[in-house]
Amino acid sequence: MKGTKSARQPEEESLRERVVVITGASSPVGRGGAVAFARAGAKVVLAARRGEVLHEVVEACEAEGADAVGIELDMADEAEISELAQTAIERFGRIDVWINNAGAGAIGRFDAIPLEDHVQAVETTLFGAMYGSYVALRQFRHQRRGILINVASVAGKVAAPFYASYVAAKHGVVGLSAALRLELEQEPEENRGIRVCTLLPDVHDTPLFRHAADFGGQEVRSPPVVGVPTEVVEALLELARAPRDEMTVGSPGKIAVATQISAELQSQPPA
């Protein structure tokens, strides 16, 4: 990815010894991010529901010489997210970067999918991001610094059929992040070291789309994959080094978001 590396410290120095919490660490993006941060010298605290896979990710990070902690939890459980933050603080004394990456989806015609599946998708994807953002920001205010990265999706800007609850949840993540940034603009000067970033990946090769469900007797094909998790991992590291409000990964996604914004502006009545 393009960036102004010449104006920054080398990667090893900029991320070395920083404490990074990553949820959804058993996914390709979460695992790739964990290993990349570990390779850069960060201390990583990893959370996921799949304990066996999480253990493998911790071992991969330790193989890079990093301090790594893995915690099996449910992102829809507020108490477990609080325990995750407390574990990071007790182990390393602070949290420098918190990445909300966990997500779930129910794929198919909206009214053909059991409602509880939609609820689970929203609880994991949106509520999980809310819980993580809540505990992270409370700690960041205590520290007067920190970077929160909410992994949303281009689907959080541009809707798509057969992904209704996923789209709704990702729109919520985008809105949550934007609202938090507006709140921080009202904060006292001592809290200006806190940043909230939204990452908007295009469609990538993740288990969510590979394991598309068949509801109502009609197969719903996953959208064409236009990127790989490596691009998202690179974006996570870039945001951790030089935070910005929003970053879209993938040219098709950038075009889709720009087109959506243009269409919304054209639909507005003249002032």
Explain the layout of strands and helices.
Layout: H1 11-15, E1 19-23, H2 28-39, E2 43-48, H3 51-63, E3 68-72, H4 78-92, E4 97-100, H5 115-143, E5 146-151, H6 164-185, E6 194-201, H7 207-210, E7 214-215, E8 218-219, H8 229-241, E9 246-249, H9 251-267
Parallel strand pairs: 1-2, 1-4, 2-3, 4-5, 5-6, 6-9
Antiparallel strand pairs: 7-8
Helix pairs in contact: 2-3, 2-8, 4-5, 5-6
Description of the structure:
This protein is of the alpha/beta class and 271 residues long. It has one domain: Rossmann fold. Helices cover 48% and strands 15% of the residues. The protein contains nine helices and nine strands. The strands form two sheets. It has a seven-stranded parallel beta sheet with strand order 3-2-1-4-5-6-9, with helices on both faces. Strands 7-8 form a two-stranded antiparallel ribbon. α6 (164-185) links the parallel β5 and β6. α4 runs parallel beside α5.
What fraction strand? 15-25%
Could you give the distance between the termini?
39 Å
Content-based structural category: alpha/beta
Instruction: Tell me the series of helices and strands, N- to C-terminal.
Output: HEHEHEHEHEHEHEEHEH
Q: How would you sum up this structure in a few lines?
A:
The protein has 271 residues and is an alpha/beta fold. The protein contains 9 helices and 9 strands.
Features:
alpha/beta; disordered N terminus; Rossmann fold; two-stranded antiparallel ribbon
